[in-house]
Amino acid sequence: MQTYQAPENALANKTILVTGAGDGIGRVAAINYAKYGATVILLGKTTSKLEAVYDEIVNAGYPQPAIVPLDLRGATKQHFRDLAATIEQQFGKLDGLLNNASILGSLGPMEHFCVSTFENIMKVNVTAQAVITKSLFPVMRKAPHASIVFTSSGVGRKGREFWGAYAISKFATEGMMQTWAEEVGKTNIRINCINPGATRTSMRASAFPGEDKDKLKTPEELMPTYLYLMSDDSIGVNGQSLDAQTY
């Protein structure tokens, strides 16, 4: 759905939670969801970045968002339970969840991986996303049609040397999405993945410091796929891993 054109107010009356909303793809997705009418919950670890996104949304005249400062590396089950309870109390339902937050760690041979780095990557990229999704299921069942989107990667489909724990975490993401999608079946919840591909973000720059960033797609150029999976036009799409750009 790389050429999808969202109708005006495609996300009106929807509440959507975006993790990693302070920067990169998460920031742009949150702003675009708000642009098309959604009330966006901005979750991230750096309050100042979330406040900047908040201000940008409000200054544009879009629905007023909410801010949830939370570092997924230190988040507990109670944090996620409290988040779900707050969403239900303030909004009544949750229509969308974009599990976007991820960390790269360091690239290098698997033979030399750092155990603590490996554990941190798995905590943020896999465990925290599983727990936040599990915790939000009850409030998402209150929505007429709810969409959960996980952020995948090309290295989560075919192994590539030196990508180590990050690649492994994205293979796990693909598997988690497929398993959960099978379980939700024909309920009101659908679950899919997006592979954003090579994108002009700070994470990409840290992985490829010598790369010409001007040759990369910007997060804004990927938004058709992100908007499609959050809109009602994707009702019935479940268990799919979509590419946000053509290679």
In short:
With 247 residues, the chain is α/β, with parallel strands linked by helices. It has 7 helices and 7 strands.
Q: Which helices and strands appear, and what pairs or packs with what?
A:
Blueprint: E1 15-19, H1 24-35, E2 39-44, H2 47-59, E3 66-69, H3 77-91, E4 96-99, H4 115-140, E5 146-151, H5 164-184, E6 189-195, H6 202-207, H7 223-230, E7 241-243
Parallel strand pairs: 1-2, 1-4, 2-3, 4-5, 5-6, 6-7
| Total number of strands | 7
Average pLDDT across residues? 90
**Could you give a short account of the major beta sheet?**
7 strands, parallel
Tally of alpha and pi helices: 7
Terminal-residue CA separation: 14 Å
Beta-strand level of the residues, as a percent range? 5-15%
Cα radius of gyration in angstroms? 17 Å
> What overall form do the CA principal axes indicate?
globular
Assembly context of the chains? single chain
Q: What spatial order of strands do you see in the largest sheet?
A: 3-2-1-4-5-6-7
- SSE string, helices as H and strands as E: EHEHEHEHEHEHHE
Helix vs. strand class: alpha/beta
Stretches where pLDDT is under 50 for at least 5 consecutive residues are none
Please bin the fraction of helical residues.
40-55%
